[in-house]
Design goal:
The structure is a single chain. Helices cover 40% and strands 24% of the residues. By secondary structure, it is of the alpha/beta class. The protein has 3 domains: 3-84, Winged helix-like DNA-binding domain superfamily/Winged helix DNA-binding domain (Arc Repressor Mutant, subunit A), CATH 1.10.10.10; 88-167 and 275-300, D-Maltodextrin-Binding Protein, domain 2, CATH 3.40.190; 171-270, D-Maltodextrin-Binding Protein, domain 2. The strands form 4 sheets. A 5-stranded mixed sheet has the order 4-3-5-12-6, sandwiched between helices. The chain has a 3-stranded antiparallel sheet with strand order 10-7-11, covered by helices on one side. The relative contact order is 0.14. Pfam families: HTH_1. One of its GO terms (molecular function) is transcription cis-regulatory region binding. This is LysR family transcriptional regulator.
């Protein structure tokens, strides 16, 4: 039995004609008929009832059709796996960041390796951890409040994962040209209650929920006016660029990676309260190109 026989059989069934099957297979009708006859001989069972009106499936043929589709589909998947085996896969997940996305572009251009295949996903810290835990990503870049480090380690330990710190960062306010604070150089915690916010979707590690700790009780999360929540990067950026909304985030952006007219205002009196790092699986030895990427990531966050 051959894959080609299954392909010819499926074409004949779905077109309900040996002539039409020959057309889509770029062969001749006698050849299609011969291949299917040989299959019937090999199986010692009739697949089609032939008449002057055309072909009609036998009950055996109807059952065979479903198995034939699975055989062809699985054969295609095996071919895809074989082709993918030729590539070096760099599977990364990260918190949403233009800088990290741009850094991956630079890494690709620096390597220019035809065998390097990059898979990049973005999500919340919980989503990134889940992707690494399920082996859908091999390196997961996250940030969280320093106060949550102990909880993070316990969660990762249960999943046989580990967190490697890259940098400690401060809190900042992202503002666009239409925000009244655009021309200011910094902001006090008390002033945050006067502003309106756009925020990405929250999860357990969302730093916005720890604002009362960061501000030592000066301002509470529920005092902030959250106008828009979104998981869309386009919506998030457009809200900052074209409205008076602002957002609280990570105060770290290399100047050569800045792409938009969005300013970062340091929050007065805020210490380095955030940790940035990456999550990996303890049981998996990273490949050489993955180690190279982590090294370049470390350089980025120096």
């Amino acid at each position: 039995m051959e894959i080609r026989q299954m392909q010819y059989l499926i074409a004949a069934i779905e077109t309900k004609s040996l002539n039409k099957a020959a057309e889509i297979l770029y062969t001749t009708q006698p050849n299609v008929s011969k291949v299917i006859r040989n299959l019937e001989t090999e199986l010692d069972a009739e697949i089609f009832v032939r008449s002057n009106k055309g072909i009609r499936l036998t009950p055996f043929g109807e059952n065979l059709y479903e198995y034939a589709k699975n055989i062809v589909k699985n054969a295609e998947m095996i071919n895809i796996l074989a082709r993918n085996a030729l590539y070096q896969k760099l599977k990364i997940a990260s918190y949403p960041s233009n800088m990290i996305a741009r850094h991956i572009s630079d890494f690709y251009m620096d390597k220019k390796d035809e065998t390097l295949h990059i898979e990049f996903q973005e999500g919340t810290a919980e989503e990134v951890i889940s992707l690494v835990s399920q082996s859908q990503s091999r390196i997961g870049i996250i940030y969280l409040a320093k106060k949550q480090e102990g909880i993070l380690k316990r969660i990762l330990e249960a999943k046989n994962l580990k967190f490697t710190q890259l940098r400690e960062c401060e809190l900042c306010l992202y503002v666009g040209p239409k925000n009244p604070y655009y021309n200011k150089r910094s902001i006090d915690f008390e002033e945050l209650t006067k502003l309106r916010f756009v925020q990405r979707n929250k999860d357990y590690f969302s730093m916005i929920d720890h604002l009362d700790n960061f501000s030592l009780g000066v301002v509470r999360t529920e005092q902030l006016k959250h106008m828009v929540h979104t998981n869309s990067d386009h919506c998030f950026l457009d809200m900052l660029l074209y409205t008076d909304l602002c957002s609280i985030g990570l105060d770290f952006m290399k100047s050569n990676y800045k792409q938009y007219d969005i300013k970062t205002l340091p929050v007065n009196g805020c210490e380095k309260c955030l940790l940035v790092g990456y999550v990996t699986d303890k049981s998996i030895e990273l490949e050489e190109y993955e180690k190279e990427y982590i090294e370049s990531l470390g350089t980025l966050f120096q």
